[in-house]
Fold each of these.
Amino acid sequence: MEEERRRAWIAILLIAPIPSLNLLFSQYSGDGSLAQAVFVLSKVWLLALPLWWYLKLEGNPISWSLPTQGGWGVAAALGLGMGGVILAAWFIIGVRVIDVEEIRTTWGMFGMTDWRILLMACLYWIFLNSVLEEFVFRWFITTRAETVFGDSGMAKPILLSATVFTIHHIIVLAFSVVWWVVVLGTTAIFVSGLLFSWLYLRYRSVWVVWLCHAIADVGLFIVIAIIMLG
């Protein structure tokens, strides 16, 4: 049992820092081509290591994480709630305190003021990045956290998974907005991570969690579109 826990910790530590290291490198490297290469390598690592660990090291059969226990309705309701909170936060607080022009100038360097590029970014985020995040943070890290904490229940694995999920988002926020917005955003992301991890442990399917995540992301991209396209 101790060997399994040690191995589970190693798996978590090999994955957890990668998104944050990628973001920090992209921000401070000063080399766009190298930053893009590191970005691609980080995504490959986040996909390949869990697959190798699960299939080869642990010798498990391939699993598509099919939603055999339901949960679609709960996921959709939570996603709509999250998306609604994002929109409400923007219209109640964001429009009054966030420097839209500064964000538009910064993100405009990446072509985000072009609706076609913005749409491509939205589709990538919802249909690729969100799936990868569920694969990594909800399936791989949460299940390894279950091994680490044994039969102590759902709370500790959920807390660990949500914490790891939140860390790299803090870095994204810190580069973009003022400190108190970072605090609010971090709190919202952490709560979202708790809900995502709970959904996974309750229904045991990354696709159920992805539905919730995708619906919430739609709300986020509506706000981004308002900012970038005016």
Note: The CA atoms of residues 149 and 199 lie 18 Å apart.
Amino acid sequence: MRRGWWWKVAVLAVLVAVVWRWWQENGWEKEAAFKLMREWSDKLGIWAIPLYISIHALSIALCLPSAIFFETAAPLLFGFLSSLFCVFSAKILAASLSFSIGRLVFRNSSSAVEWAQRNRYFHLISRGVERDGWKFVLLARFSPVPSYVINYTLAATEVGFLLDFLLPTAIGCVPMILQNTSIGSLAGAAVATASGSNKKSQFWSYFFPVIGILSSVLISLRIKNYSTQVSVSEIPPQQK
């Protein structure tokens, strides 16, 4: 059983090393990458969506800094509404994959646990989860800490997967998804309008992205207000 586990970890480590080495040597030419994605999307047809979801989820699980590119490019490939589904599915798949890999490693390797305990994010997130449970996981999704750091760090804690991890993750990722896909959609609509290639109604090309950005702002403000209330409620009353 343990031998089979080490085989899986070894394969994963090799894959991460190869991808990371290629990333450092070749970089990421966004225009060329987007052109390639557009060609794949046209050739694959309906299969382009599951391929996009898989690649985006894998890039997050491998801790590659490409999320903003994938999420702003999605509406240019699939349209605004379809891109919301694609990015949301990729985020949930990536979070589940990262959590499962992290939980597998941390439960079978004492050295990995020792490494996590030396990480400053681990103690912060561990204490927050112990104190507030799913509420802290929800608030953590609005922090500047990268999502893959949160995913793997939470895997090292005793947080439950479905209710305490996956559900608040699904809720917490919505504002950023709305923001990034809306920016990409607005940029695409502006370019199409300027070049005269926008055959669709210009109103609808701008309406849904603007609503998306406004929704993102409103949700973020609501969560910020909630977090402030939680912090205030936890301040012990002064002794008289």
Note: Confidence is low (pLDDT under 50) at residues 1-5, 232-240.
Amino acid sequence: MSLDDLNRQISAPLGEWAGDLDYVPSRGQHLSSSGLCIVGTNQDESLVCKMYIDANAHVYGNNFSARAVREIRMMLLAGSDSAVRLHGRLFQGGEIMGFFTPYEKPLDYASVSSETKRRMISEMEALVRRVHESGLIHGDIKPDNVLIRRSDGKLVLCDWAGAQFEKDAVMPLEGTTGYQSAWRFKNYERPLCREDDLYALGVSIWQIWVNKDPFNPNEHEDLEDDIMNGLRPDLNQVDDEEVRRLIKTYLDISPPHRDAKPGDL
């Protein structure tokens, strides 16, 4: 499918997708919220709805619909092998303001065996490779954005708001501080690159193996500044040499040179 065909599919009128809905206040479970969006379930908790809001319209302009359309586009381009499946679009006043996905299982690594964690880590590596092979960069890799698909147990990614085409990448649009590198903070205007995802994958593997968040925010007055000055997850807490080496490989990764082509490293 060409990009033009994809855009026509995304912008089709309400009802053209089987799962489309017009906005009504939800009585489901609230999952998360920010200044840009609200995430919650429908009443029977079979679906998750991500609804973009215009709380920051005075800063960004009234572009919540464009943000929703952009994320839908990235999820479709990534495909069902990498992205949580789209169920339908959410409309308000004739504009797309969000979308629905199946309510998949969060990544549960707290109560599983080391062998299960190894398999989980291997599947996460394969997932990130699939994203990059499709020409995309996710931009916010972390365990909270990895889901287990209920239908087949496969790992997929959610929250594609920060995803970009690798060949057209600009500076990061989204991101989570604890999963970003020192070199990113030293030059935040550098175009997003697959190495951003790989560094974040290393932090995520540390979190899965050690079973805790990489940093305690109460111990860091300025986490971004501390990371820029060399703070990284403590590898001494990883009790397996092979896993420790794997994490270090990802944390030691460097960004491509400015004149390098995407994927050279």
Note: The chain has eight helices and eleven strands.
Amino acid sequence: MAQADFLPRLPQQRRLYEAAKAAILSQQLGAGCKLPSTRNLAKDLGIARNTIIAAFEQLVAEGFVVTSTGSGTYVAATLPTVSRPKGKLKELPASTPKIPLAGPAPLSKRGAQLTEFAAGERYEIQPFAPGDCDFSTFPYKIWQRLQNRVWRDSWSELLDYGKAGGYLPLRRAIAEYLRVSRSVKVSIDQVMITAGTQQSLDLCAQLLADVGDTAWVENPCYWGARRVFESCDLHLHPIAVDAEGIAPTASELMSKPRLIYVTPSHQYPTGVVMSLARRRMLLELAENEGAWILEDDYDSEFRYTGRPLAALQGLDAHGRVVYMGTFSKVLYPGIKVGYLVVPPLLVEPFKSALYDLHRPGQLMIQAALADFIAAGHFTTHIRKIRQAYGAKRELLRKTLVAQVGNNIKISGEESGLHLVIELPDQVDDVALASLAAESGIAVKPLSNYYLQQPVRRGLLVGYAYVNMDKISYYGKLLAHVIQAGTRL
């Protein structure tokens, strides 16, 4: 196993696996040779036994070794075929040349619309990018231990698609958490596990609205919701947002929306918290018009001042609210786990559609997450990162005020992962964001989130990702950019 020392750039598990495989293929470890026990090997090599167990499990899965209960692990008599490239492989091109197609356009009108403003590949994470998280705060060791335990104790159910609605223990854990933390009225059966907010929105649009139906969206609005509704051929009606949240006019209140999409706990992107009066107004409107309210509670865990208002869904007496949440902000984006809480009337239709249209899966991740919540790690993690993000927010605010003074107004900082620097109407916030990008700062222009005039000017500044010891540096750099770009 000494060959593991010659693979220093690989994780320990992979190094051990590669060294053992090489020894088997070179017949240093012949057929039928008994391998040391994982306990003795861990002691001899000075590494964790779980690491060795994981490497052995991979060797077993690929057919290099076999295990015998009570006897040990042996090199397999018949080894799997390992293909080896002949000669030097030709370097693959980074991209394929685009060859124009003759005849009709390759994309449908809807496809062309979808890709017109597509983000393409994920941008490189940069300071002050809104929505990015601080991955250094994630409890890696706890998560790895839970995942290892799930894989070690897994059974066939977790390798299959799973039942409609998602992994039952996770649905139970989410229901209990939402009842306590967000005053959501929920039974386990109402919780549906999805692949995130985008899938949740798509499912709601597909099941609750027909082509041409009207969807109210906040103005400004989360672009992801806009894209989903447009792809479903819904008519978007932007409703202005003021200091109390979504603010329909008298004439707009006479219209008949089918869907009403809102972010009441922390309006995206302005950060406004919807007042209780507005929440009641929306609930009354939905009941009278037969509309469905889609409540996106995407980052309600992060509130730094005052007590949060209960979820809009918790005030709903007539079953007109579909509540949705995600673990992408509080854990990490790549987990791709979100959830819906649907009214009792919609439980069976949503279960069927979720299974038929998207197929459930990733039950190993769901099982680890269920254990993470049930063991109390989730609430502990929330407390930890809320404190860390709150400190970053306060330091950023103080740095900006110290550098720019009263020439700018900061809003939306009471909760969430970003704040908004409001700018005068005559300032081009798009140009200012481009100027900041030249300095390596990824702020976003507020005006880009509006669907129609009038628009407000400002910059969205995300502070979660930046290390605490770099907040002041980047804050001063941003202040310099603002002063240069606005002549403040």
Note: The domain at 155-375 is CATH 3.40.640.10 (Aspartate Aminotransferase; domain 2).
